[in-house]
Request: fold
Amino acid sequence: MAPTLTTAFARRWWMAVTSIIENLLFSAVLLGWGSLLIMLKSEGFYSYLCNEEGFNSSSVNLSQNLATQAPDDYADYYDSQHGSVGLGDGVEMRPLVPVDGPLRMNGWLICKEQDEMLNLAFTVGSFLLSAITLPLGVVMDKYGPRKLRLLGSTCFGFSCLLIAYGSYNPNELSVLIFIALTFNGFGGMCMTFTSLTLPNMFGDLRSTFIALMIGSYASSAVTFPGVKVIYDLGISFITILVVWAACSGLVFLNCFLNWPLEPFPGPEDMDYTIKIKFSWLGFDHKITGKQFYNQVTTVGRRLSVGDNLKQKELATKDGNQLCLSTTDLEMEKKEESQSFLKTITSTIFVLSLVTMSITQLRLLFYMGAMNSVLESLSDGDLDKVGLYSSIFGVLQLLCLMTTPVIGQIMDWKLKECDDGVEEKEPSRKGETKIKRRDKKTQKVTNALRAFVLTNVLLVGFGITCLVPNLPLQIVSFVLHTVVRGFIHSAVGGLYAAVYPSSQFGSLTGMQSLVSAVFALLQQPLFLAMMGPLEGDPFWVNIGLFGLSMLGFLLPLYLICYRRTLDKQQQQREDNAKIYLKINGSDVPEAYV
Reply:
């Protein structure tokens, strides 16, 4: 039986810690595709597409006359690690580096056709990481995270077992990798999305925990490199996958025991710590303290203002003339709540799409072109390329370490603010009341600071990309990783601050889908760099640098939006002065 929201609230710290660990090990692990690709090729997936015909010359030694020196132009084709063998009569045998011949990895043939097929499977799985976000968000907002998380952990475990089964006989079962990566991408996104609703249980620390969840999701790119280290130690690939599938079973069990059926309401919608039952007032079930306050004040407004139509409807209910059921409360909240269509057409959401899409394109292009850029800067030294690629992989953990910074910025001074919902004590005459800032205004101010910081870092990243210096690319690695974690956390915190919590999943899903579609432009940009620009990314980086300046449109609009909120707050304070003059209290319902 699923626990109640009250039980889940008591276990929220356990759920948060385990969610971070589960995101690291089971969410967007496909982002570490480079390491998985090596292991799949070592296990022979799609190796049957390669053949040895026509490459016999690469597996034998080149014979040449000792008196004839090899031209310098061909020196790179000889294996310098093995000495030459004299055969007499002025002839020596020298081994060739197998450049054009059939290469082998762990005894299996590898080739270009194999790479293309495996990368096609990766494209299918990685596309699901973004394309499935919108329907997942809609389903989660309506039915809650429990069922989706159970389904996600099951799909992830099933994907591991499929890959393990395919490695038994890769010549016949390689096609299973397509199905496996599809389930892997779907299951990982289910795990990620459901964890983003959990921070609702942490009140004013919500943005900090959203940042932690996003940071663990972004840092999951190091999972497959870690698995490859275990694989290189001699542990069987099948054993690793079976153990991994068993661990996903633990995720299923943890969710089954601790995650409630209901969606997690936002802290402004529900107080988990207060449970009240007023059967003598005619409420139809247990409600929270804030809901009770909303119901009582709604009754007061109806009695004072004199809503004739609703009063007639209430009068027809036997024994409930003065009471309001929670069904009526839900109806009223739906009327007051902003529609989803109005939300996605709002200026803030549209500008957030622009900012996120540009940033995603900037980051993904760098990742796609990174090896080519490193080869150019290192003059083709593959050892340096491998070293810098490994450094980039390790630095992905910075996402988890730095995202709490942006979370703290989003949650700055929220505890000192007035949320406009909690009941206030009436002010006595002659008593000076301390002015508290509106909580929504503070949230918008914090989001403004977060986006300014993120865009400044993105500009710094663009500048380092323009400088053709190899050691400087480590700075680019750090900025790339930090910006990737910051932008997701800032957008998630903005949606949580401005829009209803019931729309958070749908909005995040739509933002992910739109930015993923826009990020497909990185492929033609890469082709342009490798073709007309002859491998030089300078002009592409110049264009993306100019495009990234559009990211400052959102902070500029947030400044205007904050001024609007300040004017609304001032109007409320003026109204409170009128109530104080008439009733002796600044509480609007005091005269009921």
User: Anything to note?
Assistant: The longest strand covers residues 62-65. The chain has a mean pLDDT of 75. The chain has 24 helices and seven strands. The CA atoms of residues 65 and 89 lie 8 Å apart.
